[in-house]
Amino acid sequence: MANSPQPPRLLIINCASPYFFYIPMGSFGLCDALGKQGMEARIFNPALYPEVEVRERLFRILQTLHPTHVGFVCHWQETAHGLLAALAMVREWDPAVVTLCGGFTASYFAESLLATVGELDYVVVGDPEEPVAHLLQGRAPETIANLVWRDEGEIRRSDGLWLMEQPLFDSLVFADCSYLVDAERYFDTINTKLGFPLLLGRGCVFDCEYCGGSRHAFRLHSGRSKPVTRSIAAIMADLHLLKAHTTVLYICYENDPAFVKFLFQAINEDQELRGHFTLHYGAWHLLDAEFLDLYRRAFNSGARPPIFEFSPEVVADNRRTAIKRGASYSLQQMEENFRAIREAFNGQVRLEVFFSRYHPAMPAGELEREIGEILQFKHRLFLQGLPVHVCVDHLSTDVGSRYWEEHQDRPRDFARFLDLKTQVDEGRLHPFPVDNLCLMIPAHLPQPFLIRHEALLLVLERLERHCHELLHVLLACFEDGWLGELEAVLTLWLDAETVAGFFAKPPLEAIVNELARRLQAGPHQCPSFMADLIGFSCKKIEQGIGPVAAYPVSPRSNGDDCFVLDQTRITTHEQDYLDLLPLLRQLHPNMSGPLPYRRTVCLFLESGIVAMPHASYRTTLHLFAQPRTLESYRAAVLNSPRIDPQEHEGLLAQLIKEGVLLPAA
What we know:
Elements: E1 9-14, H1 26-35, E2 40-44, H2 51-65, E3 69-73, H3 80-93, E4 98-102, H4 104-108, H5 110-116, E5 122-124, H6 129-136, E6 147-151, E7 154-157, H7 166-171, H8 183-190, E8 196-197, E9 201-202, H9 215-222, E10 228-229, H10 232-242, E11 248-251, H11 257-269, E12 278-282, H12 289-298, E13 307-313, H13 317-323, H14 331-344, E14 350-357, H15 364-383, E15 388-394, H16 402-407, H17 414-425, H18 447-466, H19 468-478, H20 483-490, H21 499-504, H22 508-521, H23 530-544, E16 562-565, E17 570-573, H24 580-587, E18 600-605, E19 608-613, H25 614-619, E20 628-629, H26 630-637, H27 645-657, E21 661-663
Parallel strand pairs: 1-2, 1-3, 3-4, 4-5, 8-11, 11-12, 12-13, 13-14, 14-15
Antiparallel strand pairs: 5-6, 6-7, 9-10, 16-20, 16-21, 17-18, 18-19
């Protein structure tokens, strides 16, 4: 009797990248669609494991499931090398297993991807649910919609186009994590970021020029000309499934703000869901009062501050409208909206703002002006105490976007794309570091300008990270008028022989000192404490160069143990720079005169800086200027009514642990 054919089984591998460990949401729905037809499917996510463990874990699931087909999710362009790595391991396991690939990037490059990657058998273009089912069932390739395949050395594409419509969309589950290997590990990982992405629909009404998920891009890679949205009931069913696994969700799909509000209202009316989830939200529009009210009613904003993301991209309002190809908000309106969001959440909220540099239409002069405008924007937000983090990233031009189509030579050539990505990954495409997959910088920008511009942005980023007090004082005193002096300082390190070393490790302390010298020697009106602030900033930079040696002393030291202060970890200053907002608010109306003296002592710990008024220091920790036992110190200090004994004991323990209080011989 002949053996019956193997039932089809699909292993979906979410291709890994250093940038992404998220699984595209459609992978779960595809597994559900196949399961409803009696076909087994599982998802394996290599990004969840250390690289040295991936091969062993992958082989384990391959040998357990023994799939007839292996699918690779190449959705985001950053995962292209992850596709090649996973494909090589699968072919090592079984050279004959059927392989297929899908996702935005695979769909866009479909024919070129197959021509370039010989180990791949099929590419499923666009919506995968029906085509993958037909492929697993063994139908002839030419009868399967959305399919590209290799036929005797020739790359062919089927004539049919299949698009998901709402009835099927609503019948599928996109939150059944039983298909995922190590699902709880996945939740633990994504909950440290933005949480589980909730699938509301497929396709986009917006047409942002840089986006690979825009209306234009969806037509190119998926054949979809209009979005399809799931029903509220289907989404609610997914939420009830997710409730057992997580309390953190993410939505970045705002085709119809009214639809999102209906969803929030439905969650609010469901007693099992109301207040269970914290929702992080990627916004296209600004958030009106109705949205904020519905959010507060539906979600838990007390367990952790919710994150709201905005992408204005550029400072100029008219430029933003052109880039997003439609009516958008102004920067002033966004700033006003941030104040409303802060009030709605009593300040317990995080706002993430993303600007991107090197949009193709922007000339060098506009890019230069934009740096100062973004800095002043950050300064205004800081003065208002708004909980906003502003990023100025390299533009990651998505494949399939208008930018990609219009500005890349041979945009559909996968081998060329892969070469560009390799050059970026290895640091060879640009003479300066980039913070994402920056595949394109407009050709009209000359190389000397780019070097200066990147050097300035790098130093500003380091200043903000290591000595933001200095940055904001400079902005308070000079607005962006000091940037010209900083650019002049940077030219000292940007000749051909030193520029590579500069970008590898910019000499921040030397830059700060030279900038201060120029500002104090020039016509600028510097505050009286500028030299002291420079000293404080340089101390912060020095302490941040490397970890301070840990001392093997128990925080619970015996009272007879003798300690002395490490004076190299202590500085005295004219102002309390760590209490920056009051200083800046005093500084703005008093630029011409000296500020009241606030003598402050700073103790530099590995975990941060402890600041205290000099008078308090003199009556407490200064006693350790000479070797002293803890017992004698406690007797002298802890009986004071102005001292919280428990808090002060905690400080002593931390100072001993981090070596600011040293064991005395």
